[in-house]
Amino acid sequence: MKNDPNGTEMGDRVDEPIAAVSKTAVVLCGIVLLVTVAISRSDLGKGFLFGSMFSLLNFWLMKRGLIRRLGMSRNRAGIEAFLFILLRYALLSIPLITATQLDGINILAVCVGIFNVQLAILFYYLGWMRLPRKGISI
Which pTM value belongs to this model? Predict the structure, then answer.
């Protein structure tokens, strides 16, 4: 891995916020699952969970791809980035196609679940970063 000017590895600096956002996404998923079970709409919970799993996988693949391309030449990195985007879009189409085929999974909940990481980023940086906390961490 490439070192930054301060001497730390880039992967180490990237891991902390990604772990925090991933934990926030899992907490959001748990909250949504509890609410959907409480209102007896398990199809919504399954859809959100299904979309969230692929969203988290996509987020992890983005991290891995970005760190991998740090040491590459500009042309090679550009080609690999384009192919990687195609791979990630294909990955995100899997829950959408599956939800259209299965009755037990709500497709709208899958769509919202695919945006779970983006919601987690929003909640983490607008909520957790601004709240005064004493001994609370996620």
Answer: 0.77
